[in-house]
Structures
1.
Amino acid sequence: MESVHVVSPFDVNCPSRPVMEHLSSRWGVLVQIVLLRGTHRFNELRREVGGVSEKMLAQTLQALERDGVVHRLVHPVIPPHVDYSLTELGVRTATAVRGLFDLLFERWEDFATAQEAYDERKARA
Amino acid sequence: MESVHVVSPFDVNCPSRPVMEHLSSRWGVLVQIVLLRGTHRFNELRREVGGVSEKMLAQTLQALERDGVVHRLVHPVIPPHVDYSLTELGVRTATAVRGLFDLLFERWEDFATAQEAYDERKARA
DNA sequence: CAGCATCCTAGCAGATACTG
DNA sequence: CAGTATCTGCTAGGATGCTG
């Protein structure tokens, strides 16, 4: 008998927390957006996502693959050729993340203005 | 003459990166969701968001306030009383974040299954 | 090309104590 | 109550070198 799991990221020990953290991680969000534009190879992703190290990209992709968000297709050739794409679930998560992105673009002026106002207030005080 | 800023989080040095990271940070996402349900005081938030330390909550709230996402209202009384709420911009960002959350709930079985399958494949290999 | 293994460090983050 | 200040540890994350 399995107990019913109520998934709540507000609970410290909920297994959904790590998943949420993968989806919203620094590199995770960028990778999802890039893959939403289509399949990419490892080094293509690396070039698209500015500043990501090899190690962190590999780590990020593995976490997202394990979570069922990213699909990894290995072509058995030499030199190696690996294609990364979004699963159906990944398209859903990436689309949600894209919502945040779009907001960042649309409202960038508001973010920037708020920051200036905040710093101004602090400097004055 | 100001140059036109093209905001691109894919660029290493784009000022939008820190903002994106605040919005998608471990505690940032949880705080936004809680505040979407209404105004909260500091220690109310602390209780709602499981596992967050005083320090990290303060830090998170300050970053979100500076970004124009969270509004901080100080009532000049003793003992202190501070109300945190979302700005209009914050409601927008929090709603986007909520999209990710809802997905996590709706599709939790798929995430869990994917993880098991992945671990199974690895153990086998 | 697509990684993994190793080493190393900055700074993220927790615990504790104190203050207006 | 709502924070700061300080100390410290841990680990995310970068650099480098190697492999199938």
Note: Chain B is about 60% helix and 10% strand.
2.
Amino acid sequence: MSTERYNPRDTEPRWQQAWTEKRAFEARHDPSRPKYYVLEMFPYPSGRIHMGHVRNYTMGDVLARYRRALGYNVLHPMGWDAFGMPAENAAIERGVHPKSWTYDNIAAMRGQLKSLGLSLDWSREFATCDPSYYRHEQEMFVDFIKAGLVERKVSMVNWDPVDQTVLANEQVIDGRGWRSGALVEKRELAQWFLKISDYSEELLTALDDLKTWPEKVRLMQANWIGRSEGMRFAFTLEDDNGKQVGDKLTVYTTRHDTIFGASFCALSADHPLVRELEPALPGLAEFRREVAALGTSEESIERAEKKGFPLKLYARHPFRPEVRLPVYAANFVLMGYGEGAIFGCPAHDQRDLDFARKYGLPVIPVVAPKGTDPSQFAVGDEAFLEKEDDQTVLINSDFLDGMTVPEAKEAIARRMETAGMGERKVNFRLRDWGVSRQRYWGCPIPVIHCGKCGVVPVPKKDLPVTLPEDVTFDRPGNPLLHHPTWKDTTCPSCGGKARRETDTFDTFIDSSWYFARFCSPQAPIPVDRAEAKYWMPVDQYIGGVEHAILHLLYSRFYARAMTLTGHLDLKEPFASLFTQGMVVHETFRTAAGEWVLPAEVARAGEGYVHARTGEKITTGGIEKMSKSKKNVVDPEAIIERYGADTARWFVLSDTPPERDIEWTENGVEGAFRFVQRVWRLVADIQQKGASPGTKAPAGIAGDALELRRTTHLAVQAMTEDLGALRFNRGIARIYELANALQAALQKNDLDDGMRFALREAGEAFVVLMAPMMPHLAEECWQVLGHKTLVVDRPWPKADPALTVSDEVTIAVQVNGKRRDEIRLPKGLPNAKVEAAVLALDNVKRALDGKPVRKVVVVMDRIANVVSG
RNA sequence: GCCUCUGUGGCGGAAUGGUAGACGCGGCAGACUCAAAAUCUGUUGCUCGCAAGGGCGUGGGGGUUCGAGUCCCUCCAGGGGCACCA
């Protein structure tokens, strides 16, 4: 037995180099082989990898290596989601140029990822901030414009008046700018939009076909798209004196059945009619300002009170000419949805009810449980909402009385359609995708504004529009706008003086097609169709749930948009999706409440102290690793101390991959101990087992046969587990096999059968663990006397003759309680099992003389004796 | 508020409606050692019992079934998503 300890610091770089020299992971288009494209969400180059990356990329790597061993032509690329605000923040705070900051970070992170031993095709690497990448993004955008997928429209942004800059929603904290602390205003700005809402229906229905996506993600997307079926119809309006005014008021509703319960109409504060009335109605301007200000404040914490402003207009009820509904501007009606106007039915909508109570409007119930006396049914402070299984009918509703809600909806829809008053309408919650960002570190939007010709796309021959490098961050606002010359250009159409668009793209655009670019990263066009046809779709995409909606929905839209413009030929980019859980860790803090890094904490009896100061440390909750709470463990330090294989093994062990995993010191040490144990085991096997290539001797029986069975069962189980991404279970199989090997090695005087079984088990053991601990596996493979590499080794196949046994253990129950077990030949007929079971002493005792009513036998599994 | 997922030993977690707790962590005991670490062996859901052998047990309650961690109803707790979408 070897007494040497396994030293990952020595072996890991060696094997990484061996793989690189062999170009083992470079993928080449080969139509004769089945392909497998495994992709993990590419990282933002923050400068250091974190444990979340380790977990994400290890999972992908296990799949890539496993599929490779199965004979697939595997594509497993890596790149950088390199545009974004942190680079600009670094520029502002530390005076580093975003470009050098980004590329330095990439270099650092690339090194860290390489030390993990990932089977990545680095020859396909790119960063989204490379002009050679984003030029294609610009080209496609120009094509999107031509295809009618792009729109320029006015939209509200969060404006920081001190920093003179536009803020993302997450930069607005309690209504104030995160940096300046100034009260954030809403401003209207002309911006670029991609018309994702054209695909609302399509993106929704196609979710049904994404069968290997997590149900949760599909649901989240479906909710986000938010399809609803309703009606659009118009009210005639009149003024205070009952005189009809020119405008009609169009509203959208999904509860047209409740029309007889209507008691008011409400318009969004941004509704065109409200804007029109503003000058004429004193106080309305202020009301509108108030509503606008509310949008950015902490209203999400406490629901804002329903407020309205009477517009001195009245809507004539379509079926009750004698009823006039007062019209309000209201703070709870959204301009961006439906018509920006509603009718309020307080009895059956909580918001409408709150509003009606505040302004003393009538509350007329029109839906009630079946059999309720309409004159007795009243609504208090809670709106009556019909539940799906409720037996409800319409009341107080003229020709609808007695109908169920669906019947009433249908009746109203018919009546309105025939009368030409309105029509059925499907609405979606999903809005168009605003892609303009008033930032420097992003892909320039390739359009030119000309005084004469309007907006003109940059001709493709002039692409890319590159970012100027001589920019300064010493004053607030967009450096592109401040740049002395960059924006000055000539109009491609008329040749006159013109101005470049100074907005850049939302970085979600960069990540909406990178997976396609990986198929042909050097191509002179965005995507080489032949390459994409072979490699796409991504067979297995892996990332965090936090991207369940935006990134994945945008990518699905982009695939369609690219297909429409001839850049791709598929609709769904990710055939299978897996969302892995986070890495969490206990939090530590001092008595003063300061967070302390786990690395600075030492155990002291039951509690913890600060490793340097000796100060008492208290533990807090187990939370997602975050810099702010300092509960982070640096992967580099872990790799330095234990090696990459230990880190990889740990993040795969124990916890199912979709759940959050708790990082613990004990766990890592356990993983490291196992690495050492494998090392000793393999050395022992090499010494005691048969030599490599030895044929199976005849007549293997007893313990040797059992070991062979265990081996082949492990192969079978591992194959199933990895195929289903059940890494934690796969690891348990490896432990089981290790335990079996260790037990077998205890014995002395090993016969040829056992020596063969040890060799077979040992080699299978190494190959099975290789996807998870690739370096250790290579090193062990050598110890086992091989000159080849494990990465070139095919995945083992289980011999069916060894995975089935001719005897089975059958559990014996009496009245559903387990009383005994019995070994019987496999496939024994039920009658014989019954007889054998009834003869058992334990069964007789449990029956205690009671007569047997029947015996339930499930072949090879269980027998249940039921007594009277 | 609506929509969702999850509740199993001290802990992470296994378990096609068929022997609950695989495997790991931790604990306990032993071997080796002058000793410790490392390693190896055994043991480890709770409980009654000297033992043989019982009883209880998958968040609570109910149901379906010969049999429920698993299916159905209901309640409770925790996590996630959306949050004035009419």
Note: Confidence is low (pLDDT under 50) at residues 297-302 of chain A.
